């Protein structure tokens, strides 16, 4: 039975304390919150750390609230909280769609949005959601605060824009006025598994015209989890099924899926197209108040 390599452990009592611990222990210190992704990697010795800094006592990073023109989500907010949030349900049903198919209740009760995004797994569901919504990441260090667009935050598999001794503290999602709908669609081998492929979208419409749109993709090798060419195909045009189908085809073309144990590349590209189309159709229907 494999066990992790030895490491030291510290429990932060505040954000400032966590930043001080990260700065003191250097680049080989890692944050742990839910731990459902990091701890198995340590056990398998895929990842190594000298120090684990536990931030579970930082309750002031656990919230979902309106802040100006954005919905602010604290980095320590659990998946279960987002699934049940009436605020997110009111503005972006894509969150409930995605959270409902993330792992199982045990993971959802402990896992956090910050941990999910900072893990930067190429098959991460919330990375696609945040990319579709063009969210913004708030990063804090001893030098101050900076903001990074979601589409620049993930820089490669398991690699983010987060610097050493820097913590993701908040995710900000713009509140869009008018008729807005969103949706997330996923194919998995079994309930709660990582996706074979998944796609999310939001659509803002004025009558039959698409005024804004975002498309997020995961597990299919889409750069930065998004499909900007497909979005441009829709933006400013009609929200008809022919246009949605053409955009879904562009989204599939933007992917670079790899054959692995979850399926062949051609199958994943096919899923990228179909799931993008499904999410766009549901998002348009929801924007028009048709439910779904």
Q: How would you explain this protein's 3D organization?
A:
The protein is α+β, with helices and mostly antiparallel strands and 292 residues long. It folds into three domains: 8-54, Uridine Diphospho-n-acetylenolpyruvylglucosamine Reductase, domain 2 (2-Layer Sandwich); 59-174, Uridine Diphospho-n-acetylenolpyruvylglucosamine Reductase, domain 3 (2-Layer Sandwich); 179-286, Enolase-like, domain 1. It is built from twelve helices and 13 strands. Strands 4-5-10-6-7 form a five-stranded antiparallel beta sheet. A three-stranded parallel beta sheet has the order 1-3-2, covered by helices on one side. A three-stranded antiparallel beta sheet has the order 11-12-13. Helix 10 (228-234) packs antiparallel against helix 11 (241-253) and helix 11 runs antiparallel to helix 12 (265-287). The model has no long low-confidence stretch (mean pLDDT 94).
List keywords for this structure.
Uridine Diphospho-n-acetylenolpyruvylglucosamine Reductase, domain 3; 27% strand; 3-stranded parallel β-sheet; alpha+beta; Uridine Diphospho-n-acetylenolpyruvylglucosamine Reductase, domain 2; globular; Enolase-like, domain 1; 5-stranded antiparallel β-sheet; 292 residues
């Amino acid at each position: 039975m494999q066990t992790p390599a030895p490491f030291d452990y510290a429990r932060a009592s505040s954000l400032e304390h966590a930043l001080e611990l990260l700065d003191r222990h250097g680049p080989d210190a890692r944050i742990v919150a839910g731990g459902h992704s990091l701890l198995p990697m340590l056990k398998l010795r895929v990842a190594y750390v000298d120090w684990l800094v536990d931030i579970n006592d930082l309750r002031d990073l656990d919230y979902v609230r309106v802040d100006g023109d954005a919905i602010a989500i604290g980095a320590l907010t659990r998946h279960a909280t987002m699934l049940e949030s009436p605020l997110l349900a009111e503005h972006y049903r894509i969150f409930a769609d995605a959270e409902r198919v993330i792992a199982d209740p045990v993971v959802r009760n402990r896992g956090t949005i910050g941990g999910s995004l900072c893990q930067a797994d190429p098959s991460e569901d919330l990375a696609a959601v945040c990319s579709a919504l063009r969210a913004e990441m708030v990063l804090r260090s001893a030098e101050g605060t900076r903001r990074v667009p979601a589409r620049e935050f993930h820089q490669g598999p398991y690699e983010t824009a987060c610097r050493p001794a820097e913590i993701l503290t908040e995710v900000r999602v713009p509140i869009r006025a008018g008729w807005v709908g969103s949706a997330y669609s996923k194919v998995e081998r079994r309930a709660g598994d990582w996706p074979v492929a998944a796609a999310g979208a939001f659509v803002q419409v004025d009558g039959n015209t698409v005024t804004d749109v975002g498309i997020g993709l995961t597990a299919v090798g889409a750069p930065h989890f998004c499909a900007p060419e497909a979005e441009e195909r829709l933006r400013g045009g009609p929200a008809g099924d022919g246009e949605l189908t053409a955009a879904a085809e562009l989204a599939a073309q933007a992917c670079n899926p790899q054959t692995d144990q979850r399926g062949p590349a051609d199958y994943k590209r096919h899923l990228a197209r179909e799931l993008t189309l499904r999410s766009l159709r549901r998002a348009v229907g929801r924007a028009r108040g048709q439910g779904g």
